[in-house]
Specification:
Elements (H helix, E strand, L loop, with lengths): L11 E6 L4 H15 L2 E6 L10 H7 L8 E4 L7 H7 L4 E3 L26 E6 L7 H14 L3 E5 L9 H9 L4 E5 L3 H10 L3 E5 L13 E4 L7 H13 L4 E3 L10 H14 L6 E3 L1 H4 L6 H15 L3 E4 L9 H18 L23 H10 L6 E5 L2 E6 L2 E5 L2 H9 L9 H20 L21 H4 L9
Parallel strand pairs: 1-2, 1-3, 3-4, 5-6, 5-12, 6-7, 7-8, 8-9, 9-10, 11-12
Antiparallel strand pairs: 13-14, 14-15
Helix pairs in contact: 2-3, 4-5, 5-6, 10-11
């Protein structure tokens, strides 16, 4: 049976799922049962992902409660469903592939997940802040807050004490911003705290005794990244003197012990479940030759699962220039995912930046038919299968090189239609199409390529006024 389900007040629906989605399924089905007045049970199969189930596998593993009136299986079980239906004594209902669409079985539409909620603080560091003029520093800080930062970290210059550090702190405090100071200079830390800084990065055995004078929260770190005993000692000292703290075992870059450092975060969380934690993620994003969005998403997911309530990020290197905005989007996704026990998939395209979720392609036959059906000389462009296709009245050209494609167009019978305006337009659009082919993105003529939250919509009014081309019939 393919939904919707016909139910009565005596209906008992048994839903089967994998271990990964069990909490989300239970929450969703419980709400549906309250609204539609049916009884239910959840069968958690010994498999992580429900998509890997098959009807034949379920026959061997399934135990159906005797009170069941319907069996609801994941949508991936469609092939071979008749075999399963013969094995059980109740109607088998094919549910959705995604449990969040379960409401459709009852005639409802899927409710969007709220991505406005999060609980991870973003601390954005301005490196070598004292080297900047106050006005430049202020503008940079306000821009970071607009991007999603909750606190601005003033990164001091370890080679030179800043005599005006209080001015930098007061500048931010005057805007109502939360401020942290990143220094091992005890004088700088004390002056910054007096001026309004509410967090000091960082303390270990070398400077923890000064923290008693600052009257503010500190970040406790080990003396060296692998020395957890020193971190324990610093935590004990700070606790004994009633100094508020958050813990950072230090994330190390790839090649210096990344995996081991992530394990240490887990160990420290288990050892001190009551204490706040912070992760400095710039050690990975700034020191890895890869776009930062994916790294930030993974690290924010680890933080959400471990209850690490703050991240310290920088955006100095060009490939990490939008890290604060990436973290802001990521923390919303991981909050929803961890809270619901679901993967952060099909929630938002904001961080799908380099490639696109899906590609819409036409068959060659469809493009040939389109060429035969078009009655005007306007040009339609498509990018698929590694080639750019140009279609117009009675014309279908394609090539993997836009320059050759344009040469072929100039040799075509309708080439007199190509004036300077058309040439510029086609060159611009074919450049977009070439980028889409190279990256595996969707190309839609007269539409901006999608770069997630970095997408810049195109204003094409000047082109549409010419009346010389249309993106589609």
């Amino acid at each position: 049976m393919h939904g919707p389900i016909e139910i009565t007040t005596t209906s008992h629906l048994h839903f089967v799922t994998g271990t990964l989605a069990q909490h989300a399924v239970r929450e969703i089905v419980s709400d549906l049962a309250d609204r539609h007045s049916f009884e239910f049970s959840i069968g958690v199969m010994p498999i992580t992902v429900a998509a890997l189930m098959t009807p034949q596998w379920l026959i061997r593993k399934l135990t159906l409660p005797p009170q069941s009136t319907h069996l609801v299986v994941p949508g991936f079980c469609e092939s071979g469903l008749e075999t399963l239906a013969k094995h059980v004594s109740v109607p088998v209902v094919l549910g959705p592939n995604d449990c969040r669409d379960m409401a459709e079985l009852f005639g409802e539409k899927r409710e969007p997940i709220d991505l406005n909620r999060y609980d991870i603080e973003i601390i954005a560091e301005i490196n070598h802040a004292p080297r900047l003029a106050i006005g430049q520093f202020e503008s940079m800080a306000l821009r970071l807050v607009q991007d999603g930062a909750d606190r601005i970290d003033i990164g001091c210059d370890p080679a030179k004490r800043c005599d005006r550090i209080a001015d930098y702190v007061r500048c931010l405090v005057s805007h109502g911003l939360k401020v942290s100071i990143d220094t091992f200079d005890n004088w700088e830390a004390g002056v910054a705290c007096d001026a309004g800084a509410s967090l000091v990065l960082s303390v270990n055995s070398q400077n923890r005794h000064h923290a008693k004078d600052w009257n503010t929260e500190v970040v406790a770190i080990p003396d060296t990244p692998t020395d957890m005993d020193s971190l324990d000692d610093t935590i004990e000292y700070l606790t004994r003197h009633d100094i508020p703290m958050r813990l950072d075992p230090i994330l190390e870059p790839i090649g210096s012990g990344l995996a081991a450092s992530i394990v240490r975060y887990s160990v420290i969380r288990q050892r001190y479940p009551e204490l706040p934690m912070m992760m400095g993620i710039g050690n990975l994003t700034e020191l890895t030759d890869v776009d930062s969005a994916g790294i930030n998403m993974m690290l924010l997911g680890i933080c959400q699962e471990l209850g690490i309530g703050s991240v310290l990020t920088t955006q100095v290197i060009n490939w990490a220039r939008s890290s604060v905005r990436e973290c802001d989007h990521a923390r919303r996704l991981v909050y929803a995912a961890v809270g619901r026990g679901i993967p952060p998939k099909n929630l938002s395209d904001d961080l799908v930046m380099l490639r696109d979720r899906t590609l819409n392609q036409f068959s060659d036959e469809t493009l040939e038919t389109l060429a035969g059906a078009i009655k005007d000389n306007n040009y339609r462009l498509f990018a698929q299968d590694g080639r750019i296709h140009l279609v117009s009245r009675g014309l279908h050209l394609d090539d993997d090189d836009p320059f050759r494609l344009f040469e072929n167009l100039l040799s075509a019978p309708i080439s007199e239609n190509v004036d300077r305006s058309h040439a510029f337009y086609l060159g611009y659009e074919m450049a977009k199409a070439s980028i889409a082919l190279a990256l595996g993105k969707r190309y839609e003529q007269d539409r901006a390529l999608r770069w997630g939250f970095l997408t810049s919509e195109e204003n094409l009014h000047r082109l549409t006024r010419t009346g010389r081309h249309r993106s589609r019939e």
